Amino acid sequence: MKKQFNILFYLTFLILYLEILTKVFITKSFSGLLLTFVFSIPIILILYLITNIFKRKGNIVLTYIISVIFILYYCFQFFFHRLFSNIFSFNTIGLASNALDFTNIIFDVVLKNIWVVLLYLIPLVLLIIFQKHINFTRTSLKKIIICFVLTIVIWIASLLCLLINKNDTYSAYNLYYNINSETKTVETFGMFTYTRLDIKRVLFGFEEKLTVEEEPVLPSPPEEEEPEEVITYNEMEIDFDTLIASETNGTIKSMLEYFKNSEATNKNEYNGMFEGKNLIFILAEGYNMIAAREDLTPTLYKLTHEGFVFNNFYSPVFLSTTGGEFQATTGLIPTQSILSDWKKNKPTIKYALGNAFSKIGYSANSYHNWTYTYYSRQKTMETLGFTSYMGCGNGMEDLINCSWLPSDVDMINATLPLYEENTPFVTYYVTVSGHAPYAYNSTGNSIALKNIDYVKDLPYSNNVKAYLATQIELDRALEALINSLEEQGILEDTVIALVGDHYPYTLTIDEINEISDYERDEIIEVNRSNFILWNSEMDTVEIDKVGSQIDVLPTLLNLFGIEYDSRLIVGKDILSDAPGLAIFSNRSWVSDYGTYKNGKFTLKEGKTLENISDYVSDMNNLVANRFTLSANIIKYNMYEYLLK
């Protein structure tokens, strides 16, 4: 009989091979490889014990089942990350099912990455080929006992490894016990250990802890000398001392301490600039600055070069459109657990876009030209403060053609008469015409097909041309909106704000770079975009400070002179003196001084820092705390608690 090797060797290969593919295709970093290996050993030994339960044939079947389950799960995580730039969490099964409804998009992404699927299938292929050379016979009781004891010993040893550098912000210790970061955890421990922690946290609950009790004092660019004047701040009278003294919940108490010790942003020269004006806010599906072209999208081009022009603005991807929506309308960071709590518990978000304007007498309306229950918007629009919400299924279908893909132009033309006379108003649009897949066919993208003549002769790949064709529809919608407002005589009294929900993530980075005016990377710069903030009567103002989606709401609140406490929103008014910062789902960040990604900080040209390591440490603490604050503000309904 030919010599056979133990099933343990195959199981070791299976797990470690899948973990290495995870580092290659998802985290794109081999940091944490040693810990991934150490924490994988106990699960490998447990799988070995499981595949020794039955006789030979039963163990063979069990090995195939285990292999298929693991390969499918790891492969699913790859595609989830490819679509949403994040790791799937069981916290958000409902959200993911919404986002994955578009089977044609999934098919397109799978087809583009079929070679990756083949790589994931290699362990299964090898199992089939070498099955006869693997010993599936049940091992002796003695060996099973040794294996069980060894599993426990290695498990204890792996936990002891967590004590190394435990005080670092993203140390293995903190990621294991204190911080819920999907990407960082996978990067440090591997996919399986992350999944085990994720399931445990979903079933038994988890509370992130603040890394420090107050915000670090960060360097700000030198200011020109100006005449002394009284500086006022966006803050309210909140008796934190009394609240802290009476609070028994440790998490809430630490948050109160943090808010108390935080510095509010200043009421700058732009405070109240748009006071009393109407606001039309557009969350534009798939919009990115690469779509603003003078030849194809002249209205978008005009609006991105007039009004407030934010030269360093980012729209980070946080689980598709719902993440972009949450960022822009609440000023908070939307992790998967936060989005899940938001939709399930319907917390009071008193500073959210609709609530803030309703409080000062505005009529608050919202419209979406797709299914009104998508991403549970029939619930979340209420938490955002929109008393009137219409989508396909609760009225929009009577005004426009709601079959896939609906037109943004049709939505604007049909809904503007519903609110234009009820001033002052804040109106929130969630568009859909720019949705993927980017292809010329009626079932995949009828909008791209509709506008094909405008792009067919451009020197780009078909996917890129189809994307630009969808953004032409958004451009036409903006043109129709501005013309209608002007005809009604309210254009000068109306502010138009627009951000993209996320970059067009079904395009590859090479396709995006076809029409980008500079070379982008897949982590940071792929998210660079525009924040359109425009009024027909204002002069153009250029802002170089870094900003992102979470800064949109506080910027608007300051401009419209709405009273709020800036310490309670993790985003900051971009026009204030607060240091600029953009935060991404994998906890990378961009500041006015440089970029931090893959554990490395790169100083911007022309910038200097006295102590880079201290600066990076402070920034990592700040970023971690903003994630934690966002989660616990929603979990504990802190706005209701503080602003009764």
Topology:
Blueprint (H helix, E strand, L loop, with lengths): L4 E2 H21 L5 H18 L5 H29 L8 H7 L3 H10 L1 H7 L1 H9 L3 E2 L5 H20 L11 H6 L4 H8 L1 H14 L35 H7 L3 H12 L16 E7 L13 H7 L3 E7 L5 H11 L5 H10 L7 H6 L4 E9 L5 H7 L4 E5 L15 H12 L5 E6 L11 H9 L1 H4 L6 H26 L6 E7 L8 H7 L12 E2 L1 E4 L6 E8 L3 H8 L21 E3 L5 E3 L2 E4 L2 E4 L8 H24 L2 H5 L2
Parallel strand pairs: 1-2, 3-7, 3-8, 4-11, 5-6, 5-7
Antiparallel strand pairs: 4-9, 8-10, 12-13, 13-14, 14-15
Helix pairs in contact: 1-2, 1-3, 2-8, 10-11, 12-13, 16-25, 19-22, 20-22
Notable characteristics:
single chain; 15 strands; 644 residues; 26 helices; 11% strand; 4-stranded antiparallel sheet
CATH topology name of the largest domain = Alkaline Phosphatase, subunit A
Number of domains: 2
Helix content: 40-55%
Oligomer: single chain
Shape category: globular
Radius of gyration: 26 Å
CATH superfamily of the largest domain: Alkaline Phosphatase, subunit A
CATH architecture of the largest domain: 3-Layer(aba) Sandwich
The pLDDT mean sits at: 91
What's the number of helices? 26
Q: Structural class, please?
A: alpha/beta
Query: What is the rounded distance between the termini?
Result: 79 Å
How many beta-strand elements? 15
* CATH level 1 name of the largest domain: Alpha Beta
